[in-house]
What does this fold into?
Amino acid sequence: MAQSGPVFVVDDDAGARDSLAMLLESSGYAAQCYESAVAFLASRAPDARGCLIADVQMPDMNGLQLQNELAARRSPLSVIVVTGHGDIPVAVQAMKAGAVDFLEKPFEETVLLDSVRRALERATSAGRQDDAAKDARRRLTQLTERERQVLDLIVTGKANKVIAYELSISPRTVEIHRARVMDKMGAANLAELVRKVLSLTA
It folds into this structure.
């Protein structure tokens, strides 16, 4: 069985929603359905980490507009766009906007399930990156002003002697600050420290 979703289905076609929900749930996913983009946005679902399957052709707000709105809200959802119309420009637009996949109806069940799996993997990966950035940001606030100065120079690749010269302190003092920075940032080595700092700008 597949890992649980959640997988959100937004389609104004009740039959399409029901068949998708049945396929997803029989494959081990937790499916939640919405009849419109407006109803979906009114729920708490956009804040969840998971996968969204959105139909392009919907009244009031179409699938691409929904995708753009989610991006504006910085939603962590991975999006799969589905349409019954072979519109290549729309496909390109969806993919450029960050969609994991674009599927033309009717599609093979295995194709959809493979797209859902990849979308959830992306969502999980993005979630881990987001958690890492939050942890790094929290740890950064624990540094003193001097430790932050040392950190900024460390990640540019400067040696202790150069840091000492630029900050007008002794190399020994730099070593002490450096050790405190590594400890507070939870970094075992320089490479890990650099990765943590880079996660803040990703």
Q: What stands out?
A: The radius of gyration is 23 Å. The mean pLDDT is 84. Strands lie at 7-10, 31-34, 51-55, 78-83, 101-104. The chain is about 55% helix and 10% strand.
